[in-house]
Amino acid sequence: MGVCVGTFVAQNGNSTPTSVACLKKVSSNLSCMPNLNQIQAIFQAYSPRIYFHPDEEYLSSSVSWFFNNGALLYKKGEESNPVPVEPTGSNLLQGGSNDGEYWLDLPVDKKPKRESRKEIYKKLRIGEHVGDWEHLTLRISNFNGELWSVYFSQHSGGSWFNASELEFENGNKAVCYASLHGHAMYSKPGLVLQGSSRIGIRNDTSKSKIVLDTGARFSVVAAEYLGTAIIEPPWLNYLRKWGPTVSYDVSVFQKFVKSLPNEVFGEEGPTGPKLKRNWIGDEV
User: Fold this and answer.
1) Contact status, residue 163 vs residue 187, Cβ threshold 8 Å
2) Residue-number span of the structural domain to which 192 is assigned
């Protein structure tokens, strides 16, 4: 039998631990992993359908489209001399770490490219970030090819859902809803507040006529266990930022918070009458 990640056994009152009867990973064996043809067949069978909000203006694109439509490589200290990016990202830095010295962005000072900037992302406001590499992860059994669960990424986090909890279309196609402008992935339409209380950043999702069939056009970009069968594109190993760093001016908001009465932030029991200023003085 299979034991899902997170499963455990609790035992009380017996010094001899009970052995869990399951397959135990004692060595790495990739023989049951799918080959390239099987990968493509599995994805065609389960390829999700992603619905965008009806008011969505900024749709997904291929990486090569992003590069061909004006993406530039910037270097700290040389911002006035960015470098155009090759369609495959072959001139991007490979490996290393995110050192803050390089980042990708679209031009801001060349009129012919301004239109492509609008097509990728608009002028930023608080809560509207440059972008994320949002994704879906399909967990599929290597034994019978059955879809077990799907992970929906949401900015820097996300959630797993069992297949039985999901909406499907066209047979086995799991349905996903991308939030308006932010493109966070959700299993159901509606409003989700990003925050720990009733105040937060809106993530609005809804079904519309704008739908991305991920199985219609896709590329396998990495499968390390297949060796040279899959050659990773250079852009995959670019480990720096895929957008500029933006610092928001929150001074107006801070001024507003300081203007609020103390009672907004909390309450406590009052002191006795002799401790009031008017006990020995005039009413103020």
Assistant:
1) no
2) 36-56+131-233
